[in-house]
Amino acid sequence: MEEKSKAEQQALDAQTKGRDEAKKVCDEAWARAYQAYKEAKKQADIVHKEARKIAVDKEAKKVADETHKNAIEQAKKLRDAITAEAMAVFRYSYDKATAEYLETQTKSKEAIKDADETYKEAKKQADIVYKEAKQQAVDKQAKKEAAKAHKEAIKQAEKDYREAKTKLQ
Known about the structure:
The chain is mainly alpha-helical. The chain has one domain (6-168). Helix content is 93%, strand content 0%. The chain has helices at 6-54, 58-136, 140-168. The protein is rod-shaped. The two termini are 16 Å apart.
């Protein structure tokens, strides 16, 4: 499994937290929508029962039944509207958290790749300079100084590389 940088882990943690919070809000909205529907249906049933009791003819009972049916339909529409809104908010939060994590992950990988390339290039340049200095050296002391300079250049490249990697983690 690939190790995540500190920035990637923070983005992943934020993504998870955002998703969890969005899911909690969505679940609460669903529960409230269901409760609102249940209460509206209960009230409609009570009114319907009383309306049927006082209805004097078949036509009045039919109107009471139709009105009850419409009230239930309206309660369902309200419930559905609430849940649709909750889902839209959840989806937006979920997508945003995912996009932010992916963006951070991409930037982190690019930065690591850049650090790798910079290190390789610095090492390559140090090798080239060392080779030229060694060829131009006329005595043992000059060759020794060239080797020392080469070693220092490689050391500095490694230090810069470690610092860059540390910042990314």
